[in-house]
Automatic annotation (TrEMBL):
InterPro entries: AKR_Detox_Biosynth, NAD(P)_OxRdtase_dom_sf, NADP_OxRdtase_dom. One of its GO terms (molecular function) is oxidoreductase activity. This is Predicted oxidoreductase. Keywords: Oxidoreductase. Gene3D superfamilies: NADP-dependent oxidoreductase domain. The keyword Nuclease does not apply. PANTHER family: NAD(P)-LINKED OXIDOREDUCTASE SUPERFAMILY PROTEIN (PTHR43364:SF4), NADH-SPECIFIC METHYLGLYOXAL REDUCTASE-RELATED (PTHR43364). Residues 16-345 form the NADP-dependent oxidoreductase domain. It holds the Pfam family Aldo_ket_red. SUPFAM superfamilies: NAD(P)-linked oxidoreductase.
Length: 354
């Protein structure tokens, strides 16, 4: 049975497994999405994460679809909203998605307008955790390794972003705030400014964390531990690489599973998860799991579930069977010897999906 855990210094308490929903409205039809939400709630999950830009891969036709599906689920299930901690996100600068908003940035007015639109789609009066999906400033993210000051295009200072978020909190539209795809400097600056000016303090950071991408362990772990900001780990299965489904055939091979996101969408394959080095490392971890009597999924999820660094792990599923498998992995324990073997592979291969 999962106990709830606190998020940062907020009063939010969530289950250490969070249901991610970005497949709803693309790979998962609405009726199936509602059934998955029902099962997650039935099995004790009280934490749901979404975003205004979902479904994924992002398209104008499905922008906002996931929030709309969740909103209709709330409307059809009286009492469900009160049982869950609801998290969503405001998109950062466009990144090639002009349908998100006019202009290339993320202004204070954009934050307010996005929040209002999310509230309407979600059919709720308040968002429990409102997160900035990626920084407004230029940072290395989504597979980019290096910070390049020449690419800086920031127009909205962090203080201005915090002021806008504070207005949403004061208006009762948002309870707490968080970040996503952030850097150590960004977290420190958000916390510093909040504490200096009496503004809302970020409770969480949602960043990738899995066996083939432990870049969090290179500085973010200490920063967030000392600042009391909680990690919400996304992509714990590395877009399916850590399930073993691609151990025999790469995502682009004719024999690869065609239902997988990474197999279906070229944009995903071009990012960190599609690198040959990421697949090679995943196959090493998957074999390590089998050598210890575990499935690859059990090893990958247990690694996140049991890490002191992770407050809640975000799982994304496309079927009831996947949901049950991911939740059942909560009971998997990893021995000190197995954890040492995991670290040995990382020492050799580092973080190929960073």
């Amino acid at each position: 049975m999962m106990n709830t855990v606190p998020l940062g210094q907020s009063d939010l308490r969530v289950t250490p497994i969070c249901l991610g929903t970005m497949t709803f409205g693309e790979q998962v039809a609405e009726a199936d999405a509602h059934a998955i939400l029902d099962r997650a709630l039935e099995r004790g999950v009280n934490f749901i994460d979404t975003a205004e830009m979902y479904a994924v891969p992002a398209r104008a036709e499905t922008f906002g679809a996931t929030e709309t599906i969740i909103g209709r689920w709330f409307a059809q299930r009286p009492g469900a909203r009160a049982k869950v901690v609801l998290a969503t996100k405001v998109a950062g600068p466009s990144r090639g998605m002009p349908w998100v908003r006019e202009g290339q940035g993320m202004t204070a007015a954009d934050i307010v307008a996005s929040c209002d639109a999310s509230l309407k789609r979600l059919q709720t009066d308040v968002i429990d955790l409102y997160q900035i999906h990626w920084p407004e400033r230029h940072v290395p993210a989504f597979g980019t390794l290096y910070y390049d000051p020449a690419k800086e295009t920031s127009k909205t200072p962090i203080r201005e972003q915090l002021d806008a978020l504070a207005g949403l909190v004061q208006a009762g539209k948002v309870r707490h705030i968080g970040l996503s795809n952030e850097t150590p400097w960004g977290v420190h600056e958000f916390v510093r400014l909040a504490e200096a000016h009496g503004l809302p303090r970020v409770a969480t950071v949602q960043n990738p964390y899995c066996l083939v991408n432990r870049s969090w362990d290179n500085g973010m772990d200490e920063s967030c531990h000392r600042l009391d900001v909680s990690l919400l780990a996304y992509s714990p299965l590395a877009f399916g690489l850590l399930t073993g489904k691609f151990d025999q055939h790469a995502p682009t091979d004719a024999g690869a599973p065609q239902g997988a996101r990474i197999a279906r969408y070229e944009s995903v394959r071009k990012q960190r998860w599609g690198r040959p080095e990421s697949l090679a490392a995943a196959r090493r971890y998957n074999q390590l799991a089998r050598d210890h009597g575990l499935t690859p999924t059990q090893l990958a999820l247990a690694f996140c579930y049991r890490s002191w660094r992770v407050a809640s792990t975000i799982i994304g599923v496309t079927s009831m069977a996947q949901l049950d498998e991911d939740l059942d992995a909560w009971n998997t324990q990893l021995s000190p010897e197995l954890l040492a073997a995991i670290d040995a592979i990382r020492w050799e291969l580092r973080d190929p999906a960073q």
